[in-house]
């Protein structure tokens, strides 16, 4: 029977009512009395020296309040990077200065050069057109290998080269890994590209800066996944505003997918300009601006080698990856191709020796940082593609080759520094093969061939590290932040609760799912619990939402705070019931004395806490409000197996997804409806990467895909139909180290699906006699047709 | 500046606009009907869909002056008279057809337009009709389901365990 409330119930989302009636409160819906608008004049040149900026014609235009250039920001800090990677020689990465407005040089198309603040947006835009900028254009470097091979074009003159770092992991394993390759019975090698993507949340970024002269307080309203992180970075490192004078609000946010984690120049600008102009300053990104200013994702070029012994056991994996950083280091950019990528190269397999080399490279392109999955899709794609290729070379079943090498005993310490706590990879494999009716594939292939189509079956397994992250560990790895989460649980006198969380909901449904947990713990109705998030003024310091961490880390903090509430409430109940505290039990919203019929209701206890007439004041304080900070002791390790069947039209190269199945192990699940929705969304983005999406530059650094006319977003008819599409999360090995046993589900779909699709396409082409080992994403009709025709 | 008048969600509305003012800007900035969203600048994403004289229109692609004298319906005008969710809105909640909510107003308005012209669409017809509405969160699966359900057709219930 489906549950009708609490953990495990598909409670309908309470936030939906405001979103469905147009009553949401997104950042662009916020207008402050007397606000001005800013328009950023952005570089249309990828690389050049600024020789002059003439704003004189623009200054006197109607409505213009003030015009800013890079010179106005000399007294403030640059955009900070939150993670310092150490290279394979023990030296810190190269870290360039990242100005709010370009100063001296422009380094990518879209970099802001000047900012016009005016009464209306139209006036600001008109005035910006009257600014004359002279730039001596320099050759641009876009290709990563070219950027490393030669210093002819340097993105940053004050750095020694375009190489941010050359990272080796685990360096101590390198010699043994090389030796294993010499002894291997078989080696499979694959070179591939993980295509550059743009996250494209449907809500473009917005920032509204406000300043109160009377109190010297600044407020920033922004489209962020983590308002406290923005407050810390912008206050401490950019503008020098102490946190008690700076409030950051991220209200309803229209999707993030990683790209709204980072601190951006426009946020700092609006906060700075509001004080300089003494009026609120608002910026709303256009979609075209978003394409050239939101941090991009992926963009790796990789060579991976897999060594096997004579019995087809994996003996070693060796990789070399070029990872694009773009022109500057975005907030968490250095950590993505290293600690969120190299540590996952064991996948689901007991490969004993692994060596990962990553060269992070500066180019004249938009900065690259985390996008849904962040490093883990890149790890999964290369590993699962090379395994599929190895199976074909060896003439063995790709399912059996994977099964033979599965990790089966937990906890399992990988050779790449992480310890998987739980998992059952055979269970998810069994499940997905059942769901996908692999047994019936031959008949479906025959039917496709009868109508002139090629049909392929793709299999893929994945693991990810979520619930980010143990602070002491990430501190050793270079993080310049802790990665705990916080919650304050405030119980009101009449028994209702408010949870103030540092997690942020921008589509994940925290306002519904978090109360389900507390409702179960206390035995009260979910409607008695409200979630407050997104405002540094009324939530405890928190690290926000990314890396599938909200329920695993934020939810755990909430559980810990609620446990403190219950412990104190039991003390109050024991006083009211004149019984020993150890005899008090909480069930169904009432405290009772074990073995008796004496009880007191939840609401009576909460009332006593605030009206303490009959209350143990000598032992405990009045009130019922507790805060907890939860710092996880390990990552969580969601894992799964996905299958896909494609049809390829040999005449055109067009690929259609005919069937898709996923079997995920997320540990325990709080709201199955929300979990399935997260997987649907992740898979759609993964299919988008595999078949449609590509962020493309020409050799001069011009962005060729700067609108939805050019960048192919998945539409409803690009995705599998309902009858042949199933997402399953019934295989559950609960996480052993957090109180809810949860692992996180936000990124799985985007990690698991791209190699599934490509494996299916290769299977289809091979079935038609085409000797095609690999196709780079996106597998557009042109690419597939070209691969078929050599 | 031009003075324009129109009927929005059953009420008279008026304002002064420039010739270049888009209908989406007029609704959001002048009338403060911020349920209509703007997600792109090339008329692709559909977050701004409203109904003008009963037809679905991308309000970022129509000038406010062009809509003068028209009957305009936005997502704020879609609930039942008593404030409860309409059949389409309720189906979106029941089938988890929204996550971040940003594309949702356009999806609701497109769904209403579709069901008006095709009361029992097939799944393929729903997917085809949504060509002009982009959602980045849901993978469309539950949006399609919600629209089918709102048309009175049987679809699988949401996940339960």
Automatic annotation (TrEMBL), chain A:
GO terms for molecular function: iron ion binding; oxidoreductase activity. SMART domains: Ald_Xan_dh_C. Keywords: Molybdenum, Oxidoreductase. Residues 21-139 form the Aldehyde oxidase/xanthine dehydrogenase a/b hammerhead domain. This is Carbon monoxide dehydrogenase. It comes from Roseobacter cerasinus.
Automatic annotation (TrEMBL), chain B:
GO terms for molecular function: 2 iron, 2 sulfur cluster binding; metal ion binding; oxidoreductase activity. Residues 2-78 form the 2Fe-2S ferredoxin-type domain. Pfam families: Fer2, Fer2_2. InterPro entries: 2Fe-2S-bd, 2Fe-2S-bd_dom_sf, 2Fe-2S_ferredoxin-like_sf, 2Fe-2S_ferredoxin-type, Beta-grasp_dom_sf, Diverse_Oxidoreductases. Keywords: 2Fe-2S, Iron, Iron-sulfur, Metal-binding, Oxidoreductase. This is Carbon monoxide dehydrogenase. It comes from Roseobacter cerasinus. The gene is coxS.
